[in-house]
C-alpha cells in the first residue's frame, strides 16, 4: 500500500467523484460551444468577403463546403480536451495569450494595421478562459451542476442558431442577396462588415473576466506569499521572453508553418516552466493543451489562409500610404 500511494502521488489528480466528472464535462462543453460560435461567425464573415472578391471565388467554395460530422467531431473533441484540462494550466494559457494579444494589438496599432488572424488564433485560449471562469465562479456553489446545465442549454442553443445561419448563408446567400427577399441574407448584406467589431467587443469582455479568474485560480493553490513569489517570478520572465519572441515574428509575413512553430514554442516554454515550479499533472495538461491548439489550427486552416492574405494586402496598402509622402517631398522642394 505504501508503494501504491507513493506512485499515485506522482499521477495527475482525477475527479473520482461522479459529480466532479459531470461538472468538468459540462464546463468543457460550454467552452467548446464558445469556440464553435466564434469559428462559425468568422466563417460567415470570411465567406461573404470572398464572395465579394472575384479573385477569391475558390476560397469561398472551400468555405461553403462544410461537413456536419466534422463540426460535431470538432465540438466533441474540444469538449473532451477541456474536460481533461486542469484549471491551473488553462489559466496559464489564458494569461499567456492575453499578454501576447495585447502586445500584438499595440504593435499593429503603431503600424496603422490590424490582424484578422487573431480571431482564429484565440480559439483554444477562449475555451480555456470560459472553462477557467466557470470553475472559479461556481466554486463552492450549492447548485453548481444545475447552473452548468443551464449554461450548456443556452450555449447549445446559440451554437445551433449560428450553425443554422452558416448553412443557410453557404447555400442561399448568393441567390437571396441578389433577389433581396430573405431577411437573414439582407441583414448580412448590410452588416457583414460589423461582425469582427462585435466579436472584438465580446472577446474583450470574455478575456477580461477570464484573466481575473485565472489569477484567482492560480493563487488559490498557494499557502503563503513566498510560494506565490516563487511561482510568479519565473512565470513573468517566461512570458516576457515569449512576448519578445512574438514581436520579432510579427515583423515577418506569417505563414502556416510559422503558426505551428509558435504553438510549439509557447507550449515548450510553459512545459519548461511547469517542470521547474509546477506539478506532474500540469505537465500532462500542457500536452493536452498542445493537442487542442494544433487541432484548432488544423480545423481553421482555410480560414487562416484567407486571413493571412487579407492581412498581407492591408500591410501593403498601409506601407504604400506611408511611403507616398516621402516620395513627394523632393518634388515639392524642386518646384519651390
Q: Could you explain how this protein is built, in words?
A:
The chain is an all-alpha fold and 336 residues long. 84% of the residues lie in helices and 0% in strands. The protein has helices at 2-8, 18-51, 57-64, 68-84, 87-111, 118-121, 123-137, 144-179, 183-191, 195-219, 225-250, 256-277, 280-299, 301-335. The protein is globular and about 65 Å long. The termini are far apart.
Keywords:
single chain; 336 residues; mainly alpha; globular
Give a brief outline of the structure.
This protein is an all-alpha fold. The protein contains 14 helices and no strands. It has helices at residues 2-8, 18-51, 57-64, 68-84, 87-111, 118-121, 123-137, 144-179, 183-191, 195-219, 225-250, 256-277, 280-299, 301-335.
Rg computed from alpha carbons, rounded to a whole number of angstroms: 23 Å
Catalogue the unreliable spans. 4-8, 10-19, 326-336
- Tell me the helix content: over 70%
Helix and strand pattern: HHHHHHHHHHHHHH
Strand tally is: 0
Task: Please state roughly what percent of the residues sit in beta strands, choosing from under 5%, 5-15%, 15-25%, 25-35%, 35-45% or over 45%.
Answer: under 5%
Instruction: Describe the sheet with the most strands.
Output: none
- The total count of helices amounts to 14
Shape: globular
Distance between the termini: 94 Å
- Mean pLDDT comes to 79
- Which structural class matches the secondary elements? mainly alpha
